TrEMBL record:
An example Gene Ontology biological process: dUMP biosynthetic process
Reactions listed under catalytic activity: dCTP + H2O + H(+) = dUTP + NH4(+)
Organism taxonomic ancestry: Archaea, Methanobacteriati, Methanobacteriota, Stenosarchaea group, Halobacteria
Listed pathway(s): Pyrimidine metabolism; dUMP biosynthesis; dUMP from dCTP (dUTP route): step 1/2
Role summary: Catalyzes the deamination of dCTP to dUTP.
Region (Disordered): 158-195
Protein name: dCTP deaminase
Active site: 133
Record-linked Gene3D superfamilies: 2.70.40.10
One Gene Ontology MF term: dCTP deaminase activity
Coiled-coil boundaries: none
Protein origin, superkingdom: Archaea
Ligand binding (dCTP): 105-110, 123, 131-133, 152, 166, 173, 177
Amino acid sequence: MILSDADILRRLEEGDLVVEPLDDPDIQIQPASIDLRLGREFLEFQRTNIPCIHPNSEQEVDEYVDSTHVEEGEEFILHPGDFVLGTTHERVEIPPDLIAHVEGRSSLGRLAIVVHATAGLCDPGFEGKITLELSNLGTAPVALTPGMRISQLTFTELKSPADRPYGKERGSKYQDQKGPQASKIQGDREFGGDQ
Ligand SMILES: Nc1ccn([C@H]2C[C@H](O)[C@@H](COP(=O)(O)OP(=O)(O)OP(=O)(O)O)O2)c(=O)n1
């Protein structure tokens, strides 16, 4: 079951679902989602002399990524074909019986801006800011302003709460991220036995 505005407000009031700061619920809470705003930090992927990035090499991933902070009143220009990591301004806490989906906003989709290239799922138990995978599929550069409503989060109730929610106890790599976070796939747990 997908939560409606009334369900979302109830869960926020009960306090187990957290989205903060929610400065203007009238604007941010939509009929069945919450609009999230763009933060100030971005990770850009620079052209590199490395022949290719090996996902398992933390050093190569770090070398490839460059961090940018956009000051108040400034814009971040997303050029056609660009792919950058951004972050939501809001921090979320997803309770064990909900799953959240990061979705684009139609108004930005109509300008060819995509907010999650592939991954858009926030696990039950996830806490932190959400990393946005921003790309521009169009032909014109688009100016993004921190604080603008960039994405929306929908919530689906699970049939039963997760037994082992996302979190530090299960070594979850992105728990409590405070800004855009590059891939930590190097931290994947190894399978036991022969593969
Ligand atoms: N666009 C997104 C999608 C997800 N997340 C956060 C919330 C998720 O709960 C967490 C992990 O997402 P995935 O399970 O899709 O990622 P991985 O499988 O790579 O990570 P892990 O091995 O930690 O599960 O990352 C995020 O910040 N930005």
